[in-house]
Specification:
14 helices, alpha/beta, four-stranded mixed sheet
Length: 384
């Protein structure tokens, strides 16, 4: 199947207003670095999505648009049925410009300034910015530490659990039992759950994503997601969600359509989602297999050069979360060598509250992955 698509030929993204390539100096202070940073891929999106976008462009009229139509809703339902064996209630669907925008609205609905918002650590920096930017208190619990999770959820002022499923940056895929336990704890302590499942479509072989809708009980909840991560079209904007309680759903829509003035979605986002969820499955399977090969290469190279790390590929995603603590390197010095000597940009773990780690984006042609991993190995060897 992979032979149908070319993921080895690089697409030049420079000069396209691209955050990863053109904005690298904003974070690293130097232009022209080879980036392995922002979580988008260097691959063109699925041909089926491109064809649908071209057809919509050829129509030529881009007036106000509604997402509340069957083409969009049924495409999402089809995707969940065929990918996850899950039947969703399309009446629970809502729309937003991004998952973080949806998260912000839900936090404003379900919390007050000073309230506790629980997350797993290490933590995607977008969550931290959303929570603290609204004046809420971010409370982290280590991935897999159930005792710490219950302790934080049981606090009187804990109002929301923000779940990243699968988890970013570690690539952890939560099991059905783990999710069920989270649902039980959240319901017991009256904590609402927002499950961000934007990485769900990139779960690797041997693991299974369980949508939050499969484990919810009577508690307050929302599932937020988008096809933009797996199909690589975040610049089109657009996300969707499922909100369980009808009153909460109505309040969310009121906020988006009146307070935020976002009644009309981006038509190209709707077009891309429908095409991706109806026709893009073969492409997604192929790109996921290619990325799995990239991650396999990273594992082999690190095993040979830095065996003390014991690194294994993540269960989901195209982000290699690498624990370098066993190598005994200084984070600041490592970043200096990567930038000044190797000319590459790699996200440091401190961004996610985890010094001693790095996050390497391998959603790119294999040749670029090789350059990045070799640069990382040389940098580690130079500073330890």
């Amino acid at each position: 199947m992979a032979a149908l698509y070319d993921f080895d030929t690089a697409v030049d993204r420079r000069g396209t207003w691209c955050v990863q390539w053109d904005g690298v100096a904003d974070r690293f202070g130097v232009d022209g670095l080879l980036p392995f940073t922002i979580s988008d891929m260097d691959f063109a999106t699925a041909p089926e999505v491109l064809a649908a976008l071209r057809a919509r462009l050829d129509h030529g009229v881009f007036g106000y648009t509604t997402w509340q139509q069957d083409d969009f809703r049924s495409a999402i339902a089809h995707w969940y049925a065929t990918r996850y064996g899950t039947e969703i209630d399309t009446g629970q669907l809502v729309y937003g410009p991004s998952v973080l925008s949806q998260l912000s609205q839900l936090l404003q609905m379900w919390t007050e300034p000073g309230d506790g918002v629980v997350v797993h650590t290490p933590t995607y920096d977008g969550f931290r910015k959303a929570v603290t930017g609204l004046g809420r208190e971010l409370r982290g619990v280590p991935v897999g530490d159930e005792e710490a999770l219950e302790r934080e959820l049981s606090r009187a002022d804990a109002k929301v659990l923000v779940l990243c499923s699968p988890h970013n940056p570690t690539g952890r895929v939560w099991t059905a039992d783990e999710l069920t336990r989270m649902a039980e704890l959240s319901e017991r302590y009256g904590v609402a759950v927002v499950s961000d499942e934007i990485h769900a479509d990139f779960v690797h072989e041997g693991y299974v994503h369980v949508p939050w809708t499969r484990v919810v009980g009577a508690g307050r909840w929302a599932l937020i997601s988008s096809g933009s991560k797996a199909f690589n079209f975040p610049a089109l904007t657009g996300a969707y969600g499922l909100i369980g309680d009808p009153a909460d759903r109505a309040e969310y829509l009121r906020r988006m359509e009146t307070a935020e003035g976002l009644a009309s979605p981006a038509v190209l986002s709707l077009t891309a989602h429908i095409a991706a969820y109806r026709e893009g499955g073969p492409w997604l399977d192929a790109v996921r297999a290619y990325v799995a090969g990239n991650l396999g290469f990273v594992a082999e190279r690190l095993s040979a050069a830095l065996p003390e790390l014991g690194w294994e590929p993540p269960q989901a995603g195209y982000l290699a979360w690498i624990d370098l603590r066993a190598a005994g390197v200084d984070d600041a010095e490592l970043q200096r060598v990567l930038v000044e000597r190797e000319g590459v940009a790699v996200m440091g773990g401190a961004v996610y509250g985890a010094p001693g780690f790095v996050r390497l984006n391998v959603g790119c042609p294999r040749a670029k992955v090789v350059r990045g991993v070799e640069a990382l190995v040389r940098a580690v060897e130079a500073v330890r």
